[in-house]
Amino acid sequence: MKKALIIIDYVYDFVADDGKLTCGKAGQNIEKKIIELITQFNKNEDFIVVATDNHELNDIYNREKNMFPEHCIDNKGRALYGNVEKVIDKNTNYLEINKNRYSAFCATALDLKLKERNVDEIHLVGVCTDICILHTAIEAYNLGYKTVIYKDAVASFNEKGHNYALDHFKNVLLATVL
Ligand code: ZN
User: Fold this and answer.
1) What is the mean pLDDT of residues 111-128?
2) How far does residue 30's CA lie from ligand 1's centre (Å)?
């Protein structure tokens, strides 16, 4: 069986200083660990998945619109942050997922694509720990995936939520938190 590293919302709008819904320093501080994991997954020929929000400007059906500022509506906002893009080997074992909800599994082909590739273990990195990482981990639990989360490779703009989610992964979602 194979493993997949799923990089969730690690993009300009969620990480850069002037991103629309940024985690700021907390998000920027996890870049090194994410790059280290990408290098390791590339080397082992495991899968790398980039799962990113894909919202439309002024979409009245966007459920997030009254909760959060508009984000991930253009290429700049959706571009991978820092040097992450440069280290991903896109020629092999690479997948891109556009998502419209917190979970990378919601209404996407992610589960199907992982199953076709015999992936039964997913490693989650990116932001936000207590929103998109948490909701992806919940669905991974329901779908039966082994899940690993790295506390130095996830971040949030809400520190309390970040810590709550780390406990929840371990105590309720059967995930391994490293
Ligand atoms: Zn969103």
Assistant:
1) 98
2) 20
Three-state secondary-structure class, residue 11: strand
| pLDDT band per the 50, 70, 90 thresholds, residue 92 | confident
- How far is the centre of ligand 1, averaged over its atoms, from the C-alpha of 53 (Å)? 5
Going by C-alpha positions, the residue among 65, 68, 48, 45 that lies closest to residue 56 is 65
Residues in the chain: 178
Max CA separation in the chain (angstroms) = 43
The whole-angstrom separation of Cα 165 and Cα 136 is: 12
Looking at the whole model, is its pTM more than 0.90?
yes
Q: From ligand 1's centre to the CA of 155, what distance in Å?
A: 15
139's tokens = 């669905």
First to last CA, the chain: 21
